[in-house]
Each structure stands twice: as structure tokens, then as C-alpha cells.
Amino acid sequence: MEQQQPSTADPHRWLEEVESPEALDWVRARSTSAEDALTAHPLYNEVHAGIRDALEASDRIPLVAQAGEHLYGFWTDADHPRGVWRRTTWESYRTEEPAWEILLDLDALAQEEDVPWVWQGAQLLRPDLDRALIHLSRGGADANVAREFDLTSGSWVSGTDAFAKAESKGRLGWRDRDHVYLTTADDPTGATRSGYPRTARLWRRGTPIAEAQVVHTIPEEDLGLFLRHDQRTGRTVLDRALAFYRDRTLVLQDGSPRELDLPDSADASIHGDHLALRLRHSWQPSADGAEYPAGSLLVTDLASALDDPARSTWTALFTPDDRSALIDLTWTQGHLVTTELVEVRHTVRVHRPEAGGWSSQDLTDRLDVGLRTVSVSAVDDHDSDDLWLVTTGFLDPMTLSVARLGAGSAASPEAPVEVEVERLRAAPERFPATGLCVTQEWATSADGTRVPYWQVGPADLPLDGSTPTVVHGYGGFEHALTPAYDPIVGRAWLQHGHVHVVAGIRGGGEFGPRWHQAALGDQRHRAYEDFVAVARDLVDRGVTSVSHLGCTGRSNGGLLVGNMITGYPEDFGAVVCQVPLLDMQRYHLLLAGASWMAEYGDPDDPQEWEWLQTYSPYQRFDPDRPTPAVYLATSTRDDRVHPGHARKMAALLAEHDRDVTYWENLEGGHGGASTPKQWATWHALAWAFLHDRLA
């Protein structure tokens, strides 16, 4: 329904026609103008070269995943900008110069087929590991194709027996050599309102795809249907996404889906005989049992949960307080490992099942996490207790290690789990960090809430308001912003003596579900009040001044900084807004927008539109108020957040003679770019804009 804004009400609606000749002419004219202006900046070439050098450096850490005797990884460099899929052995990987076997060269494929292919992953057939299903995207869009690849011959499987999926949102996944599970938005049953698959099918080799057996279909009003099959256990799990934060988990038994009677808002993770449940809201499994708070992690055995969750014995492995949040979990063969935030600082704990329940131990010190961000994942979740550890910090380049977890003492659950850490690789510094320091600061929001932020900049910073400073934020979908080494920020901004700030505002996951839910729907303004509180705190502390203060945000973060443009224009000198949502009256009608109504609200509901219009930058623009300098960027191939948001906002600002610069990459999807060269341009234009307007 489009009751509230007839086609005549918005003079820029025509820019929503993504690839119409008129819209693309408009895009090219403004993108060319942006490039002409920003590439002429004295620092542009230096910034572009530095970013590209960092992205293509041969001494980057090649991240890999184990399958059988090989380690597989995807790699891009100056010679392979679109990348190669390759593999090596453990023995070779431990050497300074591993010997790689190239399995697929995307640059050669793109040239051969004249398609700008972008890698979206591969799944190997187990246990033989001689076939793979490879997913490729045209220009970086979410929609992809899937093809069957023969690792023995190094060629595509062809003929009527080959598995292949036409371009659409969805996936192919192995069940066994002669069967795959297929989900596609191009199914005869149609797609959901959000544009995702609503039907899962089992497709037998050598038969027409039209004859593939329907496994399950969901209503069109749901968000989407997603399927995962464990080839080693034979278990198939269906995720019926009702909305962004509401799911039903179904386990396929004897060919029929059986639904787990669990809270819609909880995330279920199944491994072996165990079920782990992450709560977004408080839950009392049975009338006479304990009530677990939102943010808790519970475990039980899968069989009892399938039978009756109320009769299951649930163990709480993590219970949050107002300082902590669970952000991730990973299973190994015999352990469950959790990553938590305490005051936005990472901790790692290991949990193991014992005869009388579960035991838990803190591994943070033994893994030498310190103040860095750590990413933990299983090397092989079925046959090993080894963990990949990736650590990084604002001034600490990435390191890659393997942590081997021993069993500890079987006689004593309190005995420490044995941990052996092997450091495999460390990336070199990409920008000079001497004289820089990192501090954690706190601002006070409009309602008195303390909001954390990280500040990176010169240790001898003059507190006279003269330092160019950029604040980055996101504030949505329970996504936490934590310390990470970013050579792009380092080379483009920090090495020039400027300050970079990362704000942990409400709407994010820095303090778990409560922090996220505090800025949902009609409370969305809390995220924007938090962000401007950080900006004002920086000015009050003398770090910077309004004329030297900018902000950046992407996607939902683009909506955040869009609200700085129209809601708090007097607090910023410049705004970089990339792949953004901005027209909140029509967002649910554009591409995947309907899937985010649980986060923002439904514009077709008059009561919800009352609050939505208060943070819809496109509708909120007031010609009588000033606006800071604005840089807007998006991608023509973004099929998640419609490029019309950025286009229309640029046209609106230009119509009122505001300082607005617009640039659009013709490929790149929601990420914005597809190759290191494109990424260097994407970032260098934005940072040249910030240098020009703030410094």
C-alpha cells in the first residue's frame, strides 16, 4: 500500500528506477562532478595509493578454513583483483611462503564470461571433498548464481546432471552427492514480501528442477526461509524467519519438519545432541521453573527440547548484567566457547558438558586477549577442539593463532582446561602508530544514559578544539562496534594527526539486547541523541570544534548520520553518508526494506508513521535550517538498500543549493565496491571530502 505519498508528492521518485536511462544519466553526471572535484584534492592520490597498497599487500594474513587435509581460502591482490579460490596444506601454511593450488580464478572467469563476478563462498561435498557448490554474485549484489565445481579436474560440472541455480536470492546446499537443497526467491511459489525465498526443495541429480520435492513453504508475509544441512550428522535444520527478530526453528525428521516450541525471539544453535538458546527477551520455560533474563545463553539436550522444552533441564551458561553482553558462540567437538563484552571489552569463556551438568572457565588471560577484539571460531567443529583466534585492536594489526583446548582433569570439573596457543601469523603495521593512543570515554545522553566511545588520536592532543575529528557510528540490529585495526582509517586520517572516534550508541549490541531494544521503533531517537551527545562531549572536552567535526555511517549507520544532517545540523561540519536508508516512508517498499520493519516500524500504520517521520531524513529536511557539507555514496548494484535513498536525498539537497557531493559506483552491491581498486576509490573520495571540509 502506498496511501500516504502519491506519485505526484515526491518529485524525485523517478530516481528509484535503478537502471533507467534518465536515472543513470543523472548518476553519471553527478559522479563525474564528484570525481573531478575530489580527485583534485592534494591528498587524494596519496590516500588512494595508500589504501590500495594496504588492500593488495602480499603480506596480508591469508585467512583459511579447514576441510579434510587442506586449508581453503579466498585471496585478492594486485594480480587478482577479483580474487582466486585456492588451497594448501597445514605443513605448507605454517611456512613463510605457502604453496597454493589455485582452484578458481575469478578474474579469468569474469573476462571469459564478460560478467563482473564477485565471490560469495563455496561449500564442499563431504566426505569425498571432490565437488563444491560455488556461489557467485554479479557486481556484488545479494542475488547470486550457484554452480557445481569438480575439484579433481578443476572445471565446472556440465550437462543435464550438473547442479546449478539461476541468479536470485537463495542458496544451494549439499545433502549428498546426488541431492541438494535449494532455496530461491525465483521459486514458482514466489518470494516473500522482503524478497527472500519462501520454499525449500530437495533436488535429485539428473531430474528437472521443476520436479524438485518441496520440503517446506512459509507464508508470503514471513521474512524468509533458510536451510542448513550438516553432511556429517545428516541433520537438516530450517529457520523460518517470521520477522527480523522472530524465528521458528524446525528440524527435519523422516522428511517432515518438526518445530521446536521455543520463544520466537530466541536464537537456536544445534550441535550434536545439544541445543543452545540465546534469549532476546526474558523467558520462563515452565510455570514452576526459573525465569531467565534477556541476553542469557541456555543449553539443554536436543531430544528433550524436541519432546517438550518445558520439561527440559536448562542450564544458564551466561547471564548478563548491566555491564556485559554475549556477542558470539562457537562449538568445537567437545566444548562450547562464548565471546562476551564487559564494558565493551572482549572476554572468552569455555564451557564443557560434564556428568552432572556443565562447567565454565574464563580463557581471556590465557589467550592473551588484553584490550583487543578477538574473533573465535572452530577449526573443525566435529573432529577437533582447536580454535582459530583472530585478534586486533585500533593500533594492533591482526594476528592469527590456533588455540588447542585439552580436556582438563576428568576427575575435577574445576580443573583448568588445558590451552596451547600457536601463533601462526601477524600482519605488519600499515600506518605509523608512534605517538597515537587509544582511550575509552563516556558521554551523557539526553536522558542521562552513559554512552561509551573509543577515541584514537595523538597522545599529545592539544585540547583547543583545533583537531579535525570524525565520529563513526551504526546503532542498530544489535551490532556492536569494537576495536579493530583499520589501515584505511590509519592511512587516510590518523597518520595526518587527526582523531577518529567510534561510538557505542544504543541500538547496537555493546550491552546486549537491552541496549538494542532501547532504540527500537518509537525509541529510535535515543540512538541519535546518544550520537550527538558523543559529538558534543568531544567539543566540550576541547578535542575538536564543530567546524572541524565530521561523522560517517553506512547502511543503518547512513540513516544515523542522515539524522545528523536534518536533526542536528548545527553540531557537525561535514557528514559522509554511504549506502543509506533515508526515505523511511517508502523504505519497506524498496528491495529488502520490508524485512526491517521490526527494527523501525511500519510506515503504512498511521500510529507508527507518527514516530517514523520524526527520524526520516528525507521527509524531515527543513529548508529554513542550515545543513553541514554532505557526501552521499551508494552502488547501482545494491539490491539490499535501494540506491534511490541516496539519490533522492542528494537531489533534494541540491534543489535547495546545499553543499552536497554525490557519487555512485556502478557495481559493488551493499558493500559499495567489488575490487581493491574500487574499494580504494570508494574510501579515498570520502576521506578527501572530509579533509577538504574539516581540515
Number of helices: 14
Main beta sheet strand tally, sense and closure: 8 strands, mixed
State the separation between the terminal residues, measured CA to CA: 46 Å
Would you identify the CATH architecture of the domain at 24-53 and 431-694?
A: 3-Layer(aba) Sandwich
**Into which percentage range does the β-strand content fall?**
25-35%
Strand order of the largest sheet: 30-31-33-32-34-35-36-37
Poorly predicted segments: 1-8
Name the structural class.
Answer: alpha+beta
CATH superfamily of the domain at 24-53 and 431-694: Alpha/Beta hydrolase fold, catalytic domain
CATH top level of the domain at 24-53 and 431-694? Alpha Beta
CATH topology of the domain at 24-53 and 431-694: Rossmann fold
Mean pLDDT: 95
Quaternary structure: single chain
Write down the Rg. 25 Å
Helix content: 10-25%
How many beta-strand runs?
37
Shape: globular
Structural features, described:
The protein contains 14 helices and 37 strands. Among the domains are: 294 residues, Alpha/Beta hydrolase fold, catalytic domain (Rossmann fold); 56 residues, no CATH class; 109 residues, no CATH class. Helix 2 packs antiparallel against helix 14 and helix 8 packs across helix 9.
Entry keywords:
695 residues, alpha+beta, Rossmann fold, 8-stranded mixed beta sheet, 5-stranded antiparallel beta sheet, 14 helices, 37 strands, disordered N terminus
Quick description:
The chain is an alpha+beta fold and 695 residues long. 19% of the residues lie in helices and 34% in strands.
